[in-house]
Amino acid sequence: MKLKLTLIVFTACIILFGCTQPKIEYFVRPCKFVCDYPFNDTTKWAITCRVWGLLKYYHPNVTAGKLDWDKVLLERLKGISYSSTPEMVNAELKKMLHAAGKYTQKKDRHWNDSLNMNVNLCWLDHSFLDDTLRQELKKIASLSVKYPSYYGIDYGMGDDSIIHLMPQHEKKYDLDVVIPSFEYCLLSLFRYWNVIYYYFPHKYLMDTSWDQVLNESIFPFIRINDKQSYEIAFLKLAATLNDGHAYTVHRSYLPVNLNAIEKVEEKTVIKIDKGGLNKGDIIHSIGKREIDSIRDSLSALISASTPGNKEYRINRYITEMVFFNETDVTILRNGQKLKVHITPFPFEYEKPYLYKRITKDIGYVDLPLLTTEEIAPMFQSLSDARGIIFDLRKHPRQPLYDMNQFFCYLSDQKVISIFLMALGHPEHPGAYLWKIPQIIIPDSLKCTRFKGKILFLIDESTQSALETIAWEARVNFHATLIGRPTSGALGRIIKVPLPGFWASFSGFALSSPDGSELQRKGILPDIEVYPTMESIKAGKDEILEAAIEYLNN
Fold it and tell me: Which CATH number fits domain 261-342: 3.30.230.70, 2.30.42.10, 2.30.30.40, 2.60.120.1440?
């Protein structure tokens, strides 16, 4: 049987399969913009980036794929680097516009509120661009874009085989070509910045305006001289999105189930007995660096939607530093400072249980491991349990099962409510439309509803589709959520091919039925549970124990 990702189910719904289709309603959230661009060494590059991006996503010849738009940019960058006056930069940008070619102008359209809020063109009126360029760019920005745009996002349009959304036809370059060429480094920055500008629905939630981020990123990218500085520049850039889906993938991930470090009461605490370290040991320093300095450095390189999720990710990097490298770790144990020399050693991971009985009356399911074929046997095995605990923690992978079949065992209702969704308007890059999707359980699907209590365990590691499952279970099946607020990075990701690697970000905006944001907030539990030094020293899973106690009482 073909397995379906939860996210594919969403896409099938989004692209007109089972979704209610009200009149067009735009997603409107005011963003912070930078409008003033007087000429200087920074703004000449920022304006170049913006002009190139506007033409890439709106000029009819470019959106039709008639030009290699990367090549057009690369041909202009050397001349712009030598340009010392506004007139010289305008001349280079006119060459770029001329390269795009002539087009047939249609009647100017009125910009909808969503587009005005997300893609403000105030920079055209308050920059060093001359009147000729300004007026021509405004005309181009007023055009509708034929879907699918050559460089735009392919939203699938009903094709549920598409797992990852991504910009189309982006050229790939070997990293040896990119470094140390300032032209290719700027191409990387400009590509990423414009994809975010036109397709990231959460710019309004960022701590720093994306316009300001561009200005601050120009010279760090121009000064890139090796692979490490290239990676660091992108990590810092992605971190400004404040998005838990903003990955920049250069290397392999850590082992997924190694939960070895926790931050408790502002202390970085060991959770396992390994390599001479004990549960409850407090890390003071790694090598010659104090742990607070390490955490601060990592924070600048890690993108996360919530403070809790950022601390969780920092803990994973510290886990790698401590247990996967030979190093000295200075700890505090029972009030005494000790230095422990760590030598890397293989970890033996316990084989996880897909489902089991914790007690005679309580079932446990590691939900992200579940597959479609195992849904019916799981519910049959636990059918007489007083309650089932579904664990949604510590799994970066998304669930691989048919949501209809899973939900069928939890409710008699045929229509399952899910989030409000804001999706990119395919003909107007930068605008977003509200959709009100539903999951419809077909009449042909017959299940015996589970009649016991339903609990879901969540914490700051619970992200993306796992967050949506928790929310849907509470809203539709009266499930109780126990643990800590989730990651706050919801919806499908958009993957961006970049020279040398790929990046990603949250491509949809998901909201509660009242329109309130879930991005950067996460799903809040009904019962909050936080770790303590005592629970860590005792090796307890405090969230699971709270769930068992809840069911027993």
Answer: 2.30.42.10
